[in-house]
């Protein structure tokens, strides 16, 4: 058997392990991996149910809410039906027909007796309100446009998502490493 | 507080536009206990290690025939940790246009101005706090045609 220096020896051992693993062990590892993925999905779906928001955790993509939030910060949202929309709240909304959620502050609210609300938003760091961002001819946002209200926040953590988006190779590399680790680690 | 109401052709159909000038006196604590006067009430707000900034805003809240509840932010300010926690602003004009959705400002006797703030932590919960102390402002029954402000 050839002798490889340093980490080379570990790599040789790894591939040796792989070949020696019998089918049953491989299936076990795969099932383990599937369980981890399913648990993660269940936690995410659980969060969606508990918060009432279709996207309970979002990453801030622009600097329009600086200095409060910067690109890469993580926001935790709730979207309870009974929570009224009030001036000063930070809402995450989607403009009709667009996919990208926007995080801005409510600066005007007009609510009718029957609960019908229309409101206007503006980014703290922007000079003007968001009318330019809304759909053509749309002057107000409504409850249905809201993804959630920002209740909590963690700085920097969301940067990983942005990097993975901007550099897909990084995303694949990360997934490959994670997959390899889970499939190959042995439970002793 | 002085107020005028002008009928203005805004970006949309004719709506009431209100002009308000105001004074703000606020004492925002810096982590120590003590009596603070804040618009004649006592209040306690703390700039601690986990507070990155306060986003302060003055909002006008009122009811009209058209809408049961209206809230318009007239002015806002970002107060970073380390900034002077005492506000003593006099004769401020509203930063944003006080447009009503319709003509509900004329003759409206009960517009309440409140100072509130959003506490932005370094990490954690984002609470919205309303200051204790608010002022009621009535608008006159007629429109002003003078454009001076």
Automatic annotation (TrEMBL), chain A:
Signal peptide: none annotated. Its EC number is 3.4.21.89. It holds the Pfam family Peptidase_S24. Residues 48-133 form the Peptidase S24/S26A/S26B/S26C domain. One of its GO terms (cellular component) is signal peptidase complex. It catalyses: Cleavage of hydrophobic, N-terminal signal or leader sequences from secreted and periplasmic proteins. GO terms for molecular function: serine-type endopeptidase activity; signal peptidase activity. Keywords: Endoplasmic reticulum, Hydrolase, Membrane, Protease, Signal-anchor, Transmembrane, Transmembrane helix. GO terms for biological process: signal peptide processing. Its main location: endoplasmic reticulum. Component of the signal peptidase complex paralog C (SPC-C) composed of a catalytic subunit SEC11C and three accessory subunits SPCS1, SPCS2 and SPCS3. Within the complex, interacts with SPCS2 and SPCS3. The complex induces a local thinning of the ER membrane which is used to measure the length of the signal peptide (SP) h-region of protein substrates. This ensures the selectivity of the complex towards h-regions shorter than 18-20 amino acids. NCBIfam families: sigpep_I_arch (TIGR02228). Belongs to the peptidase S26B family. This is Signal peptidase complex catalytic subunit SEC11. The lineage of its organism: Eukaryota, Metazoa, Chordata, Craniata, Vertebrata.
TrEMBL record, chain B:
Coiled coil: none annotated. It holds the Pfam family SPC22. The lineage of its organism: Eukaryota, Metazoa, Chordata, Craniata, Vertebrata. Belongs to the SPCS3 family. Essential component of the signal peptidase complex (SPC) which catalyzes the cleavage of N-terminal signal sequences from nascent proteins as they are translocated into the lumen of the endoplasmic reticulum. Essential for the SPC catalytic activity, possibly by stabilizing and positioning the active center of the complex close to the lumenal surface. It comes from Polioptila caerulea. It is found in: Endoplasmic reticulum membrane. GO terms for cellular component: signal peptidase complex. This is Signal peptidase complex subunit 3. GO terms for biological process: protein targeting to ER; signal peptide processing. It is a single-pass type II membrane protein. Keywords: Endoplasmic reticulum, Membrane, Signal-anchor, Transmembrane, Transmembrane helix. The keyword Transmembrane helix applies. InterPro entries: SPC3.
């Amino acid at each position: 058997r050839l002798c490889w220096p340093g980490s080379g020896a570990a790599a040789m051992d790894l591939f040796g392990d792989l070949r020696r693993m019998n089918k049953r062990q491989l299936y076990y590892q795969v099932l383990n991996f599937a369980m981890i993925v399913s648990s993660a999905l269940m936690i995410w779906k659980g969060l969606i149910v508990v918060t009432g928001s279709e996207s309970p955790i979002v990453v801030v993509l622009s600097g329009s809410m600086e200095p409060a939030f910067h690109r890469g910060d993580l926001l935790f949202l709730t979207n309870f039906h009974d929570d009224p929309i009030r001036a000063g709240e930070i809402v995450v909304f989607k403009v009709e027909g667009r996919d990208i959620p926007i995080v801005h502050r409510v600066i005007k609210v007009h609510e009718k007796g029957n609960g019908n609300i229309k409101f206007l938003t503006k980014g703290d760091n922007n000079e003007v309100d968001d009318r330019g961002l809304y759909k053509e001819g749309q002057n107000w946002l409504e409850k249905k446009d809201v993804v959630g209200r920002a209740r909590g926040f963690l700085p920097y953590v969301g940067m990983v998502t942005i990097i993975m988006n901007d550099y897909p190779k990084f995303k694949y590399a990360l997934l490959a490493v994670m997959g390899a680790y889970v499939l190959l680690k042995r439970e002793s | 507080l002085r107020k005028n109401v002008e009928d203005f052709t805004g970006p949309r159909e004719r709506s009431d536009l209100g002009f308000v000038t105001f004074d703000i006196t606020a004492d925002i604590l810096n982590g120590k206990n003590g009596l603070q006067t804040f618009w004649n009430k006592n209040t306690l707000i703390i700039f601690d290690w986990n507070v990155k900034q306060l986003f302060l805003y003055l909002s006008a809240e009122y009811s009209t025939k058209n809408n049961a509840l209206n809230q318009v932010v007239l002015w806002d300010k970002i107060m970073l940790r380390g900034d002077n926690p005492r506000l003593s602003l006099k004769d401020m004009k509203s930063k944003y246009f006080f447009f009503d959705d319709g003509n509900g400002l004329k003759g409206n006797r009960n517009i309440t101005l409140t100072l509130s703030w959003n506490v932005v932590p370094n990490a954690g919960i984002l609470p919205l706090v309303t200051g204790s102390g608010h002022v009621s402002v009535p608008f006159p029954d007629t429109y002003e045609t003078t454009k001076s402000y």
